[in-house]
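TL;DR need structure tokens for one chain.
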Amino acid sequence: MSLELTGIHKVYSQTHAGETLVALRDINLTVEAGSFVSIIGPSGCGKTTLLRIICALEAPTRGTVLLGGRQIDKPDGSIGLIFQEFALFPWRSVVDNIGFSLEIQNVPKHERRERAQFYLKKFGLDEFAHTFPKELSGGMKQRVAIARTLINDPKLLLMDEPFGSLDSQSRNAMQEFLLQVWQETGKTIIFISHNIDETVFLSQKVIGFSQRPGVIKMVLPIDLPYPRERTSRDFNRYRKIILDYLSEERNPRAGQ
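>> reply
TL;DR here they are.
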């Protein structure tokens, strides 16, 4: 299901100062159904704000969000959102965390368990079904968070630095896991990251945001087959393009 953003503009009022803060300016973007798109840019450039607008947790000052041709102006089950923080309920077991959203939708218990068991098996969590979050590694917690989102069968998956708190080994493993999930499910994914290796490893296209106010300044297709070799010459070529872009955005006068 394709996503179309047209003229997205976001302004915050700073009442204590009597001023306004422009977070996003005229964002126009089409994300094709089933594609994996990453957004990069300097801290504070509006990346997370854009995700919140896409899933209607915030309203744009102006502009429209269309998913499959349908306007999104309130939270919708067709869009799933995963943050860096795992946000699992510590008092609920893994299986009950995964099935939580179905519970609040009053889905019968036997159906909740059946659907949760599917993701437990698919994500290699079978033996942890009755384990509590405090007993899991960071990577396992994020698997639970992804399963909890996918159980609702969203058409669009928004991910805001989901692996940012993991160590490098766990992060690489989760990147490979996410790639497998994406290829098997065909979900449309928009992924925010500050990690250049991660961005090149996962993405079909990279969108570069400017310093605030965020505008799109780079659209970079990653024309590499999967699975990708992180140490290859072509991989490093894309790394350099993104690194140079981010360096210029952080220090705009350096390139003058």
